[in-house]
């Protein structure tokens, strides 16, 4: 951590079983995927397994992430710029490719820029007070998603970075979804683990 940049360096050191999914979000994920309970990231990833494996034996890669033409969530690497639909997708890319990259996003409440410098398997986050959101569409799905694209549609719009917890709470109060804020450490660990799961999908 440095006073000059007000940043903090985070490594994806948490195992999925140690990352708790808050109650209402876990319940909605369980309902969505037709499983009994989702209390941890390990449970969530297990629920995702059937969706990630529906790729005809081909592992998921960078091209399968949710890109868009314009978005607050931007990945910059090798002089190229790509926007994504949620903050986790550009965070996943460096863990998939094992190459350094910068992610910039905008707090939807304050308009403050949140920056993530990803290299050597860790992330420098500015500001150090930033938190991440996870969430699920609150509307009831009649059937579990059967493809990665369908699954992304339920969760991607609700992945954001916020300047701090108060900014998240202001956003959540006006958001028509089941959401929760998670600490920096959990967000980075979740991105790293999702990248690993994608690389192993289809095996």
From TrEMBL:
rRNA-binding listed as a keyword: no
Organism this protein belongs to: Halorientalis regularis
InterPro entries linked: MerB (IPR004927), MerB_lyase_sf (IPR053717)
Pfam families assigned to the protein according to its UniProt record, in alphabetical order: MerB
A GO molecular function held by the record: alkylmercury lyase activity
Keywords linked to the UniProt accession: Lyase
Key word Lyase present: yes
Name of the protein: Alkylmercury lyase
């Amino acid at each position: 951590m440095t006073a000059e940049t007000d940043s903090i360096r985070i490594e994806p050191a948490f195992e999925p079983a140690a990352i708790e999914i808050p109650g209402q979000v876990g319940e909605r994920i369980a309902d969505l995927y037709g499983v009994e309970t989702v209390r941890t990231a390990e449970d969530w990833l297990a629920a995702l397994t059937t969706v990630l494996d529906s790729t005809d034996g081909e592992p998921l890669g960078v091209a399968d992430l949710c890109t868009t033409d314009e978005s607050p969530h931007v990945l910059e690497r090798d002089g190229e710029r790509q926007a994504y639909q949620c903050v986790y997708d550009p965070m996943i890319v460096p863990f998939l490719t094992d190459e350094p990259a910068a992610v910039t996003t905008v707090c939807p409440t304050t308009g403050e820029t949140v920056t993530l410098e990803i290299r050597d398997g860790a992330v420098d986050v500015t500001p150090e007070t930033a938190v991440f959101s996870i969430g699920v569409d609150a509307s009831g799905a009649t059937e579990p998603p059967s493809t990665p694209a369908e699954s992304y549609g339920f969760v991607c719009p609700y992945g954001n970075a916020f300047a701090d917890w108060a900014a998240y709470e202001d956003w959540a109060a006006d958001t028509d979804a089941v959401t929760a804020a998670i600490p920096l450490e959990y967000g980075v660990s979740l991105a790293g683990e999702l990248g690993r799961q994608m690389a192993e999908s289809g095996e």
